[in-house]
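Fold tokens
===========
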Amino acid sequence: MSCRRHSYSFDAATVLFHYIGPIKILLSAYKGSGRRSIAIFIAEEMYKALKDVNEPFILVPVPARPYKILRQGWDQTQLIVQLLHARYRLPTCSLLRRLRGGRQQKKLSAEDRILNMRKRFVLRKAVPANTVLILVDDILTTGATISACAEALKQGGALRVQACLFAAD
């Protein structure tokens, strides 16, 4: 994974699947074709990974680009987190807001992704004390987005930020 070549702000990451074959097709259908029902499967798989966490945590969705939400009419990560809360009663909080601007990540090199994500996320509310924050996203490619989110959370007082990701490239 290309993300292993860099130093990032998050403390740990749990990745459920490698982004190849059927998983790549599944995520393409979810994100590209708007097959929202796939979120149920993703949430179930994430719950399996999260149910054994033995300390207080709060799930924090990685916010999508505002333009993407406007264009598609929904946020794929927010839907997964909503399902994790509704079906499994996992604690969640939308602590981050993504600032407008920046370029679409998938069209950039790894180094450009890191630069593009710098200071793109701000806190919407105070960071809860004494709780592990677990960022939730569908895919990890270079780690730039998760790292930028973790940096914003840590600047807001978070002591530990982890990530739970459905797939990694």
Q: What stands out?
A: The chain is about 40% helix and 20% strand.
